[in-house]
Amino acid sequence: MWQLLNQPYPCEDPVRRRWAKAFWIGVFVGLFLLIFQPFGLNTWNTPYKTLKILGFGLISLLVTAGLSLSLPVLLPKQFSNDRWTVGREILWITTHMTLIGLANYFYINWLTGSAIYSSGLFGMIIVTFVIGVFPSAGTVLVNYIVKLKRYQQLAREFPVREHHAGNPADGPDQRILITLTAENEKDSLVFPPTDLLYIESSDNYSTIVHLKNGQPVKTLLRSSLSRLESQLGANDPSITARNPMVRCHRSYIVNLEKVERVTGNAQGYKLHLQDGLFQIPVARKYNDTLVAQLKSMV
């Protein structure tokens, strides 16, 4: 069980998905309380009772949206795919549930001036937690299994390419050079396109990983990833036409011609380069286009 909780799980949800998740959690809480009326709500005699009960759903929506939109921005390293696991996702959801219980407790006190639920604040939080933890954990585990099987199955469709060190002087593309220039327009890096492995964003810099005398080296340039992306292939229209150097993640550009193997887990695909020395993640938004492009290059 502990191994399962430590398995990687996707974390990077677009903002619209976070809003959608908050909306559906709010709808679930509001309708659940309206239909079943636990915590003494069934004995609550008040005007506009239906609207007031649905207010619990609105509170739940606001709590979920506030957490989901603020904490990943304030603590980006903690909410990165590198660190996110099944266990963290379950803990994250149950934290939402616990805070929802807390917020709704104060909401009902604000409406009535006293707690309807006889067990008080702690009891309401515990009951909310218990109600939420099992469907939350079940949903996460099912989603993990579905995504894992999907990405592993699709990854097996890609043939394994053998890694060849080769001679850096070989190949017609060696006569064509790529020039990547830093923002100061002074620092630059020049190399054949066949020597590029990938480029990684590093805050205000970008790390270019390329071959030099057949061995991978890393060169740091002060430039955004988008700026370097626009420079790739600028000296050779044929490179742009077949476009092997593509954005596969908000932090990575990869040379697809250097991809030797594709694997998958619940977070998505991993591209393996240089006998697995480098593993490049693929963001979900690039899955379909990148898969089609890799297949066309086989």
From TrEMBL:
Keywords: Membrane, Transmembrane, Transmembrane helix
InterPro entries registered for this protein in UniProt: LytR-like, LytTR_DNA-bd_dom
Alphabetized GO MF terms: DNA binding; phosphorelay response regulator activity
Transmembrane segments annotated in the record for this chain: 22-41, 53-75, 90-108, 120-146
Superkingdom of this protein's organism: Bacteria
Domain HTH LytTR-type: 180-296
Gene3D superfamilies xref list: LytTr DNA-binding domain
Pfam families: LytTR
PANTHER family: STAGE 0 SPORULATION PROTEIN A HOMOLOG, TRANSCRIPTIONAL REGULATOR-RELATED
This protein's name: LytTR family transcriptional regulator
